[in-house]
Amino acid sequence: MKDRIKKYVDNLFSEIYETKQLRELKEEISANLLERINDLIASGNSEEEAFKKAVSSLGDMDELVENLKKASQEKLQQNMFEAEALDKKHLIAYITASAILLFGIMTTGIVYLRNKDLMATTGTLMPFLIVSVLIFMYFGLTQETKHSYGMRPGRALLYCLATAILLFGIFSTGFVYFSGRKLFEVVASFMPFVIPSAVIFIYLGLTEKNRTKMNDVWQKQWLEYYSDPKAMMIRGNISGALWIFSFAAFFLIGFTVGWRYSWIVFIVATGIEVLIEGFFMARKKG
Fold it and tell me: What DSSP line would sit under 76-139, residue for residue?
């Protein structure tokens, strides 16, 4: 029954771009419907009868939907001409991350000038770089701007977790490489890090929702384009596989041919990503 209620409420507000306030409203309506249905069932109604009566008790929702659309449009137009000031929490976080990074760079420079040891220098930089990157990422993803809504904290933490695993793997693999180990040992040391991080990134990519603040025209186009979940799943799988192979090729070329050439992989991958997006857009229009 919960799934049926969720589907009904989602369809009710399907033409409105989802915001935090709309999610809370949908959750409240769903909870009220479920409570009402349970009461009706307890009174002797069947599940089908209880559902129909509970939905009827909501009344005409058209006015509410139109008001929400109007309010969203007015807020969008207002935000377009107003600067979005950073809240205190994000401001402190960005300053803290910058301070950590700068302190790490200076400390790393001192270590290098003193020891001339690349591994010791890299090991000194690693914790400062990873921590500062994760702070920037988390608060950057959860920040609401005039063009986009902030990401949910739980999803942002998953992105940070995947990034932390990947960064730690890159540093660890670098230590293995510069210690003089064989290539297969270097690649093997990277696998335990790249595989779980790639899995998390693919999951997040497949379940990601557009957070852009859109007007009615953009919203309608977005809903039409992304209304096919099967196509989006295929699109996400192709994209995820592309970037997994790209990272693998980056390290393979770097360790075997040279790091000066390995970065070309990402330019090629970006071009392929654009072609994939163009293919799916053309397919949708066709």
Answer: HHHHHTS--PPPHHHHHHHHHHHHHHHHHHHHHHHHHHHH--HHHHHHHHHHHHHHHHHHHHHH
User: Residue 148's beta-bridge partner residues?
Assistant: 212
**Spatial CB neighbours of 249, under 8 Å, sequence gap ≥ 6:** 262, 265
Domain span at residue 60 reads 2-80
Distance CA 104, CA 128 (A): 5
Residue 263 DSSP class: T
Q: How many domains does the chain have?
A: 1
| Amino acid letter, 122 | T
- Determine, yes or no, domain membership for 16: yes
CB atoms within 10 A of CB 9: 20
Phi and psi at residue 11, to the nearest 5° = -65, -35
Contact assessment for residue 197 and residue 248, using Cβ atoms and an 8 Å cutoff? no
Does 8 reside within a domain? Answer: yes
Greatest CA separation found in the chain? 82
Backbone φ and ψ for 148, nearest 5 degrees, come out as: -150, 155
Selected residue with higher pLDDT from 119 and 234: 119
Alpha-carbon distance of 280 to 286, in angstroms, equals 10
The span from the CA of 22 to the CA of 146, in Å, is 18
Note whether residue 63 is domain-resident. yes
What is the rounded CA–CA span in Å between residue 41 and residue 212? 41
* Separation of alpha carbons 235 and 225, rounded Å: 12
**Would you say the pTM of this structure is higher than 0.90?**
no
| Cβ(133)–Cβ(163) below 8 Å | yes
Residue 13 lies in a domain: yes
More confident residue, 214 or 272: 272
104 neighbors 127 (Cβ within 8 angstroms):
yes
Q: What are the tens digits of pLDDT across the range 68-127?
A: 666 665 555 555 445 456 778 888 999 999 999 999 999 988 988 888 887 888 888 889
